[in-house]
Amino acid sequence: MDMMKKAYSARYFEILEKRKNLPVWVHKEEFLQTLKENQIVLLVGETGSGKTTQIPQFVLEAVLNENPSSGPKGKKWLVGCTQPRRVAAMSVSRRVAEEMDVEIGEEVGYTVRFEDCSSSKTVLKYLTDGMLLREAMADPLLGRYKVIVLDEAHERTLATDLLLGLLKQTLISRPDLKLVVMSATLEADKFHKYFIGVPLIKVPGRLHPVEILYTREPERDYLEAAISTVIQIHMSEPPGDVLVFLTGEEEIEDACRKIVSKLGDQVKVVPLYSTLPPAMQQKIFDPTPQTVRKIIVSTNIAETSLTIDGIVYVVDPGFSKQKLYHPDTRVESLLVSPISQASADQRAGRAGRTQPGKCFRLYTQKSFNELEKQSYAEILRSNLANTVLTLKRLGVKNLFPLDPQMAKMLIVSPQFNCSNEILSISAMLSVPNCFIRPRGEAQKAADEAKSSFAHIDGDHLTLLNVFHAFLQNNQDSDWCYEKFINYRAMKSAVSVREQLVRIMSRFQIKLCSPGFNSRDYYVNIRKALLAGYFMQVAHLERTGHYLTFRDKDDQVVHLHPSNCLDHKPEWVVYNEYVFTSRNFIRTVTHIRGEWLVDVAPHYYKLANFPNSEAKRVLQKHYKKRKLSEERSCKLYLLR
Ligand code: CDP
Ligand code: MG
């Protein structure tokens, strides 16, 4: 491409040779011709065929050729490529910047929530599907874009599904905008039905055969089974890297440690999950010496989003974390659940990229046959409250881009004279966990550091303490390091807070604080929290466990071990319901039963509630309140 006037580096030509061998290159001319003649193009190709890294570059080349100088309002035209996962957006854009011989953030950039690595020079931008949806809220016609590439459409994430719907309309209003929908082979037919008459380009994969091995008996503990399978592979199989699929950060770190302790330097073990810092994420692509086997332990990011060359063995325990929604309890949770057959086949395919491989399924052939054929689209597994608001936002101006509980809490916070504090807490709730808890020796130090922020009334107040301390220490990264605080999360919180302040001022919501010495400083904050999250309350029963308190249904839950409370309060408000080995409520704060009566009498009408201790306690509060109202009324009459 002649957009960069400087000469290319030797590395550029070296990578170019490799790129030209990717299956999509065979279809380059066909693809560009089809795109020229059509507004929408579907492209289906096996994982690893070069869709994500190459197609947007082909598109860019065409856009630059056809629009040498002009762009909207003097700005450059953009080619956008969406990814369901932020890790993929960051990692792939870096790779593409390297392929194009440019600095990341200049001609090639990425945007993910709370992090924008793009500039006025950017012409090719990778972004999460959620971010493009946000951009569409600000500018429904997506005026800066010339071509949008929706990647990984087969994943059917909520945001991608919404974009598919939205873009179908946008393309009518913007005849000059083009759309490329890309998908691994799964579900391609559905997209073809959705976009009737749209050309479909199929890129055949170049997969080597993969031998599939099942266990004879079901495994009791898939984590242990996965670890021992890795060790067995290392001991008895010829050279080749290993990819292990687990479900989340904790499990992955745990497995990595155990593998290292068994195999030491003979292997290089690399974790991969979404909250891993970007520099660590890049490590999966680092080559290892020939004598050292690389073992990647990953969430299903590595299923289709990221292609890692050199994998010969896949270990598939058959699970992933999936979002589930229980309409009865209105609770959305992340649950470790069996994967679908389509996912299992994708996973197995990862073993045959460079040579014939093997996939070890840690379940029986019979279990495989009983799996769902396809995973359900996320839209079928989600609480649609946010989605409805998003949709309204796309059509209706001036709606809050927040979840309803948080929006309510912010709106009422001036009544409790604490909108400044509630803003900070909201910001902290919107970013990843700020507490770092390393394993091993440092763990104790980390716990001590955390306890220095702890507020006995709860985790929300603890988060507020951390936020205040971060500001007091001039947002210093060394301070964060010392205190085991995640610096990036804190910087994000500061920027989220700024965004929220702008929204508040647009709605003329007063910014105020209850003087720090006020006796009711924390009480007011806790009441404001409850005013927003009144549907997320749990009561401590005499049996010693908590029961969530909702009409129609209640659930036994436990305080998440990360909580900062020094006792078990009778009533708590919680931010999140995590459904893992047990039902946990996470980020909890102590509240008082009588506040429920004050703050949300419309909800706590009780007639609909199942009989429980909590209900009887609340009934007493109602009675007490009625009595005291009557008494003050009598006193008034006696005067
Ligand atoms: O999107 P698709 O699965 O079709 O393929 P891709 O992600 O474009 O990957 C094409 C090739 O680029 C693969 O051989 C990857 O291993 C390689 N790649 C890489 O070497 N480093 C990256 N950070 C990303 C991709
Ligand atoms: Mg891809």
- Distance between the amino and carboxyl termini: 90 Å
Number of helices: 24
Q: Based on helices, strands and strand pairing, what is the structural class?
A: alpha/beta
Radius of gyration: 27 Å
Strand order of the largest sheet: 4-3-5-2-6-7-1-8
Mean pLDDT: 88
Q: Quick one: overall form? A: globular
Uncertain stretches of 5 or more adjacent residues? none
Query: What proportion of the residues is helical, as a percent range?
Result: 40-55%
Largest sheet: 8 strands, mixed
Proportion in β-strands: 15-25%
- Count every beta strand, where a strand is a DSSP E run of 2 or more residues: 21
Bound molecules: cytidine-5'-diphosphate, magnesium ion
Describe this structure in words.
The chain has 639 residues and is an alpha/beta fold. The strands form four sheets. An eight-stranded mixed β-sheet has the order 4-3-5-2-6-7-1-8, sandwiched between helices. Strands 9-16-13-10-12-11 form a six-stranded parallel β-sheet, with helices on both faces. The chain has a five-stranded mixed barrel with strand order 17-18-19-21-20. Strand 20 and strand 21 form a beta hairpin. The longest helix has 26 residues, at 613-638. The radius of gyration is 27 Å and the shape is globular. Cytidine-5'-diphosphate binds at residues 22, 45, 47-54, 91-92, 95, 285, 307-309.
Question: What labels describe this entry?
Answer:
19% strand, globular, binds cytidine-5'-diphosphate, single chain, 639 residues, eight-stranded mixed β-sheet, 21 strands, binds magnesium ion, six-stranded parallel β-sheet
